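Comment thread on ticket #2218

A.B. wrote:
> Attaching the input chain for the structure job we discussed in standup.
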Amino acid sequence: MRKSQGRTSAAVGFTVKSGWASVVLLTGSVASPRVVNSCRVELSDPAIPAARQPYHARFATARSAGPELSQLVAGVRRFGRKSVSGLIRQYQAGEHHVFGAGVVVGSLIDPKSIANDHIRIHAFEGQLFRGVVQDAASRCNVRCSIWRERDLYSSAAAVLKQPEQTLRDDMKAIGVGVEGSWRAEQKMAALAAWLVLATGQV
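C.D. wrote:
> Ran it. Output below, let me know if you need it in another format.
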């Protein structure tokens, strides 16, 4: 296990959703990672429901460009950066040196390349919330690696040299005893953090 100025090196994983993310802090060795913390971080202000899907006016309908959309997006960036950076700094203030972050997202497609209006606005929101996490991590001097959900287990199998099913079993087992939910989002965040531990964030 690596140390930095007396602190244990750790990696943090985020599974980014619309308006929130599952977060898992992982430490230990590549052969034996350990969950230190699992929580949810809000990326948009819960007091402003529209901020959770700022590009939506209503179901399947895009919000028109203009002051309302601009204010919602700017608000998300401010709130999300503060929320994520606050969490990372909380980790860093303790016994763990967070040296890297793994970010799991639904898509990396450029929203402007999508013809379907509904899919495009979801892509804009994905891009926005992913960017919030990346920006916050950067402000804390934590570098990010990004994986798409559908590629995560196959990428991890190649890096960790284990079958995908073994990794799925490992992600189930690593969450035993962890306080709170341990569902797909938490498992993916943990696996992304494990990949960061394995690659040394290089």
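A.B. wrote:
> Thanks. Noting for the ticket: The chain is about 45% helix and 25% strand.
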